[in-house]
Amino acid sequence: MSKLTLLHRPLFAGGLPPNRSRAAARISAYVYGNVLILAALIPIPVSPRHVGILIVAGVALSTFVAHAFAESIGQSIREDRSLTAVDRRGELRDSLPILTAAVLPCAVLAWAWFGGLEPRTAQLLAEGTVLVRIGGTAFVIRRLRGRRPHRSTLIQAVLVTAVATAVVVVKVILTH
After folding, report:
1. What's the pLDDT tens digit per position in 82-107?
2. What does the buried/exposed string (b/e) look like for 25-44 if buried means 16 or more CB atoms within 10 Å of the residue's CB?
3. How many CB atoms lie under 10 A from the CB of residue 9?
4. Is 77 left (phi over 0), alpha (psi -120 to 50) or beta?
5. What is this structure's pTM?
6. DSSP string covering 86-145
7. For tag attachment on the chain, is the N or C end more exposed, with fewer CB atoms within 10 Å?
């Protein structure tokens, strides 16, 4: 199994996740990861020497670990038993969208770090990619429901992006 297939099989490679609960967990992690990456990107002071790659990667990794840990505890309570290794791997897989939220922003910031982009432009582009990912959630949810995209899907994408942006603004104001 290739790495790409492992990372994206649940949502993008022909099959749906094993059940609705798993799909919901993955979408939740996807939105959560993107919101936290955007919240990390906004206050980063940029300069040619500092473009924030380590901050973004650190937020993604620490959030991934915390989320998988918390979800594992929650699952053990819901099921009233200790988790098996298969259960734990399932929680890690369901949390992967948190890590993938950082990939494109880090690539854009790396481009600036190597001199290919002005640092402020790279930061804005990285933020834009995260906003597009958040908006794309409306299309993924539509697919998971077995429906084709519709005009209303675009409106839902804009609304999801607006709500996520409001959450990020509140987080940045309260924590920085």
Report:
1. 988 888 888 889 999 999 999 999 99
2. bbbbbbbbbbbbbbbbbbeb
3. 15
4. alpha
5. 0.81
6. HHHHHHHHHHHHHHHHHHHHHHHHHHHHTTSS-HHHHHHHHHHHHHHHHHHHHHHHHHHT
7. N
